Amino acid sequence: xxxxxxxxxxxxxxxxxxxxxxxxxxxxxxxxxxxxxxxxxxxxxxxxxxxxxxxxxxxxxxxxxxxxxxxxxxxxxxxxxxxxxxxxxxxxxxxxxxxxxxxxxxxxxxxxxxxxxxxxxxxxxxxxxxxxxxxxxxxxxxxxxxxxxxxxxxxxxxxxxxxxxxxxxxxxxxxxxxxxxxxxxxxxxxxxxxxxxxxxxxxxxxxxxxxxxxxxxxxxxxxxxxxxxxxxxxxxxxxxxxxxxxxxxxxxxxxxxxxxxxxxxxxxxxxxxxxxxxxxxxxxxxxxxxxxxxxxxxxxxxxxxxxxxxxxxxxxxxxxxxxxxxxxxxxxxxxxxxxxxxxxxxxxxxxxxxxxxxxxxxxxxxxxxxxxxxxxxxxxxxxxxxxxxxxxxxxxxxxxxxxxxxxxxxxxxxxxxxxxxxxxxxxxxxxxxxxxxxxxxxxxxxxxxxxxxxxxxxxxxxxxxxxxxxxxxxxxxxxxxxxxxxxxxxxxxxxxxxxxxxxxxxx
Length: 507
Hints:
Blueprint: H1 3-37, H2 41-69, H3 71-90, H4 95-123, H5 127-146, H6 148-159, H7 163-166, H8 168-182, H9 196-219, H10 224-246, H11 260-277, H12 280-290, H13 295-308, H14 317-335, H15 345-371, H16 378-415, H17 425-433, H18 437-442, H19 446-485
Helix pairs in contact: 1-2, 1-4, 1-5, 1-6, 1-8, 1-12, 2-3, 2-4, 2-9, 2-16, 3-4, 3-8, 6-13, 9-10, 9-16, 11-14, 11-15, 11-16, 11-19, 12-19, 13-15, 14-15, 14-19, 15-16, 16-17, 16-19, 17-19
């Protein structure tokens, strides 16, 4: 192998590690961010969801731009944007600045992810060498999701939350230099027109839906901004479907769905990411804010889940994906019977079972998505899978957050009935559901703070139980749905080089 090929593999793997790490590591730092920036729960939801929405909205379009203007050029642009956005995240002084920087990070991350496989395919034309390179890239990507949060958590503990972003600066600069000097440029032989109408309608639909779900807690479900958000999302998604059907070069070709397995794989990814991954935000807040665990104790629980996820088998894909989603649902139910007196061990069994489920779903649903299409469309299929993963996280956080907020408000109202704080139950319930328990507690007389604290913690647990149950139902529905949709006869089992598709834990 020529030296520049190893440089390409190294640079692409570093880029993938950085962007995937930022999908999960921010969850670990949320309590610190909440305290440092005086953020509300809605702010924290946006910190996570904004990155995922931007990544989902831009990913497919970034692939088209790379085909036309060059994969190395778009990868370099993405690395520069991601690195700059990391700096802006690290120096942010208020939640709005941090959220805006996270959007910019998602845009840069989409450019990195969209070009990764194409750069490797161009650098490794030999089938055997390419298979090895893809396996290495997949292992690094899997490590970002499995052990990355542990390393990042140690960084937060030692240096503070800002360094989970600032550490990207030297890595990004070095990667940019290596890309310019050592990575060869490549383009598609016949690049189609860039689907700007598709990008605008799809991005608007995702952004409006996330806005409506997250703002419903503050504004109310019937408020004009929330209703307008839902209407705009529906209109934009309808327009996206019409645009894609009418265009000669759509960013999401309808031909991709000729085999029903593609739809089944998309449902499998959405069901997993909108449940197991989206719940990380709320579980982290519970462990650190309600139980008062240290960051290292919190990480040890998630590492147990990651260890359980390192599984593999040779059964047909639909049964593996279905069994995995069933394990996710069972694990969430095992965690979903918490009481205010429980400690962290009440989550452990459920975390292990959920981790096992994620380990079954992740590699096999991607293999199904890519194996169901002809070699020329494997890149688009991979992009669709990654888009569904980010989309599931964003929508899952928003939807589960709406259920959580409603349940917390009701639980605070019930807990304060018959107490001296009964008249203020509505106000205090809203404070807890929006992540403003600290200011509300400070405004109470000392003799009433114990009553409120007990009610708030109990309400948080009730809200968490509710969304764990809702997420479990979604996972079980997904487990049933993929059985008839992922069909063995649709799967070629080979990649664009004619070799068996590598199974990467993170993709």
